[in-house]
Amino acid sequence: MLRRLASGLVRSAAGAGRCGAAALDRPWDRPAVTVGAVSSLGGVRYASLKAVRNRMRSVASIGKITKAMKMVAAAKLRGVQARQDISRPFANSVRQFFALLGEQEKPEQKDKMSAGAAGEEAKRRLIVAVTSDRGLCGGVNSNVVRAIRQTLPHDGSDRTADGYRNAVMLVGDKGRDALQRTSANLFVVSFRDVFKTPVSFAQVTLIAEEIMAGAYDEVMLVYNRFKSAISQITTRQTLVGLSDLMEHASVFDGYEFDSDMDSSQVMVDLFEYELATQLYGALLENSTSEQAARMSAMDSASSNAAEMLSKLTLQYNRERQAVITTELVEIVAGASAVEK
What local confidence, expressed as pLDDT, does residue 93 receive? Predict the structure, then answer.
C-alpha cells in the first residue's frame, strides 16, 4: 500500500512537469524569509507571511504615532500662534522706530567694507541661530543652518568679506548639532530646552543679557518667520549694536522722550528693549513655524503610512492566496494518486 502511494505521488509530480508546470511549490521547502528572491507576482521581492504581518503591525503602529503627533502639534500651534499674533504689533512698531538708524547707516556700508579690507580693526557681529530642540518638523532647522552657512566663510575663519568678525549664539539643540562640525570654533554660547515650555519674555531677557554682555557691533537674528501652516520663510534680521546707536543718536532728535534720565541712558534702555522685543518675536515666529511644519510633516507621514499599509495588505493577501492554492493543488494531487 505504501509502495503504491509513493509511486503514485512520483507519477503525479512527473506528470505535472510534462504539462509545463513548475514542480509543486511546497511551503515547507521555502526558507522562512527569502532575502533577494523574486516572486512570481509581478517580479517584486517577497517575504514570508509572518514577516509581512510583522511589517504591517509596525507600519500601523507608526501611523498611529504620527497621527497622534499631528494632533499634538495642531493643539500647540493654536496656542503659540495666538501669542505670536499678540506680540507682532510690538515687534513691528519697535522695528519701524529703529529703521531710521538703518537708513542712516546705509551710506556708510562702503566705509565698513573698505576698513575691513585695509586691515583695520574689524567690527564684531553675533549671529543668533534660532532652531528647535526636537526634529521631525520638516526643513525649518535645515533652512536656518543653510542660511548661516551662506553667511559664514567657507574656510572656517570668522572674518567675512564685509569686514565683520563673526560669532555664533545657538538657541535650540538642532542648530548646534548641525553646525558643530563646520563652525564649532565660532560658538560663544548655546541655549537648550528653550522651547520645552511656552516662550516667555522673562526667558528672552536672559538671552538678551548674554548678548548685551558681549558688546557686539551688530546682531543678526536668523529664524523662520511664520507665513501659513504650509509656508515658513527663513529670515535674516539685523540689529545695530549699542555703539552704533550711541554714535547716531542724533537721528532720534525729532522725538521727545518723557524721562528724567539723560539721553545716553535712554538710548541704552531703548536698545535693551529693542533687542529683547525682536528676540522675543523671533522665538515666537520660529516656535510657530516649528509646530506648523511638524503638523504638516506628520500629516504627510500618516498618509504615507496608510498607503504603505494598503500595499502590504494587498501583498499579504496575494501571498496567502498563493499558499492556499498551492496546498489545495497538493491535496488534490495526493488524493488523485491515492485513488490510482
Answer: 77
